[in-house]
Amino acid sequence: MIKRSHFSSKGLAYLLITPQVLVTLAFFYWPAVQGLVQSLMLSDPFGLKSQFVWFENFQRIFTDPLYLKSIGITLFFSLATAFISLAVGLFLGSMANRALRAKALLRTLLIWPYAVAPAISGILWLFLLHPSYGVVAYFLSEVIGIDWNPVLNGNDALFLVIIASAWKQISYNFVFFMAGLQAIPHSLVEAAAIDGAGPLRRFWVITFPLLSPTIFFLTVMNIIYAFFETFGVIHTVTQGGPGGATNTLVYKVYQDGFIGLNLGASAAQSLVLMVLIITITVLQFRYVEKKVQYTM
Amino acid sequence: MMVERTPVLDTLTYVFLLVGICVVGFPIFYALTAATLPLDKVVQVPMPLVPGDQFFVNLGAAWSEGHLGRQLVNSFIMASGITLGKITVSMFGAFSIVYFNYRFRTVAFATVFCTLMLPVEVRILPTYEMAANMFGPLQWLIDTLHLGAVVQWFTGNEFEVALEWSLLNSYTGLILPLVASATCTFLFRQFFLTIPEELCEAAKLDGASAMAFFWRILLPLSTTNIAALVVIEFVYGWNQYLWPLLITTTPEMTTAVIGLKDLIPQADDLPTWNVAMAGALLVMAPPVLVVLLMQRWFVKGLVEREK
What we know:
Shape of chain A: globular
Helix content of chain A: over 70%
CATH superfamily of chain A: MetI-like
Structural class of chain B: mainly alpha
Distance between the termini of chain A: 33 Å
Largest sheet of chain B: none
Shape of chain B: flat
Number of helices of chain B: 17
Structural class of chain A: mainly alpha
Order of helices and strands of chain A: HEEHHHHHHHHHHH
Helix content of chain B: 55-70%
Oligomer: heterodimer
Distance between the termini of chain B: 25 Å
Radius of gyration of chain B: 26 Å
CATH class of chain A: Mainly Alpha
Number of strands of chain A: 2
């Protein structure tokens, strides 16, 4: 789309778009092409020799039990993180929307974890759930009686990174749910109340369906967050351990590529992630296009 | 809004909210308490929840251990650089796409927008290689065309081209790769499209040049959008993890969020969690303050992204 009334200086137009195009070419397209080429090559760790091997790298990663395990871990980790942060965000959002007073204060008190880096969230929860010193860990083992040890037990470690990742994301969801709830026409809620629907029924029959575009958008954003931005949590808290129990796909790319220097495998894994995120984006755009239908 | 009288539910609402705020705020409250305690209190199980008086001692220990002071400066430079760079680059880009008509407009548009959702995390290694030698593509071109051999044939001398420009351990390396973002350009484009046509027509009638229109009309109209993006991009830049981890190899050049990792007590160390918590609070303070102080713009900017 372009403005009906526009300027005609072509030189200036190219000059203005050049920085954006240059940076995009240098840091998106060239690396993407390089990644594609690398994923079809087998190189030695020092990058001296490489050999074209077609799809051998892909064949290898998809038959590698560690990679398949990592896919399962990532799916579970992302769904759990997204579900927890969405559920808590929606709950707090609808409660705050019900509150008649102090809305601004409530928002202020719930908004700030958004600004906490995932890695720092990881450090905070690492302390809270530390098997020897953490107060939540103390509560889990002494009061509930769980044999809690994220250093040795893979499931405990996975739980730890899920909580640390979800906690930080609650405020993001909260902000969107607050905005979405405020956009719901008051008259609909009133009409339902006159028809005798109680608050809970009104929530499920009116509010929840009308929020569905927001919920869909947030689900996608939360899954992308859990897939990619939680690298900091994993790196500070568990480094993928114990025994690969928290080795998510992005962390594995880093580990295989930078620490293991297995360039071909790392590139192939990157490509799988790229295809995945492109699919998600396309699906999201197709959905967004036909989103505005408030038929009930 | 009030639909009907539900005193019980209203009370419950506030109870739930209070519980929610306490649960969400607990990690920070706990970290703050731990940061004020001496070592022998922090290692008590459970830790006392009454603050002590060692806050500045612990803060000082976190500051001097490692390179936190220097790293905070690095974080600030990186976050501001990304914010400024992204907004400038994408505003000019969007201006070019919306207000000019030229042959490669659609191509430029498509090139940029294809990258809308591609985070740095999915192209880690090749982006690193690119940053390690910015002349990589040029070198590749020279090698493929055997330009070295051509020159050698002409001059008769041994000739080899080896270009190198590395961004490792530099502020440019920390900032530049993250400046490329289609999201901001897209937001500015959407905003520019809502600006009435009459403004541009009037400016042209008055004989204003394109850049005069940009500085005197478009920029003032965009201030709210810019303020919103400043908050979001500053937080984004400050909290980056993977990229600074790759592009910097020395503690002097890395960022505070990464440097914090050195403060976490390992199994054989003294369990100085009070120092670790003081450091964590120090490093999270700048973005948290930015979000709280510019809350109105932040909420607006965040919610805009859905559209």
